[in-house]
Design a protein that fits this description.
alpha/beta, Rossmann fold, oxidoreductase, SDR family NAD(P)-dependent oxidoreductase, SDR_fam, oxidoreductase activity, NAD(P)-bd_dom_sf
Length: about 80
C-alpha cells in the first residue's frame, strides 16, 4: 500500500521533465494522477507509462495561463 492511496494529485506541466517524473512517482505511491500540459501527445505518453505501472491517470490539455482552463482541470 502506497503513501498516497485514495488520494488524487493534480500536476501541471506533467507531460515532460520534472512534472512527468512527479506524476510517475505519485502514481507509484498509489495516487490517482490528473496531469495537465499544453501538449496532449506528451500527456498521452505519460498516461500510458502510468497505466504500465498499474496506476490510474487522466490527461487534460491545459494552459495554466488561461484561468478557465485551470478551473476546468480542477473540476
Amino acid at each position: 500500500m502506497g503513501k498516497l492511496n485514495r488520494r488524487v494529485a493534480i500536476i501541471t506541466g506533467g507531460g515532460t521533465g520534472i512534472g512527468r517524473n512527479i506524476a510517475l512517482e505519485f502514481a507509484k505511491e498509489g495516487a490517482k494522477v490528473v496531469i495537465g500540459s499544453r501538449n496532449m501527445a506528451n500527456l498521452e505518453k505519460v498516461v500510458e507509462e502510468i497505466k504500465a505501472l498499474g496506476g490510474h491517470s487522466l490527461a487534460i490539455a491545459t494552459d495554466v495561463s488561461v484561468a478557465e482552463q485551470v478551473r476546468s482541470m480542477v473540476k
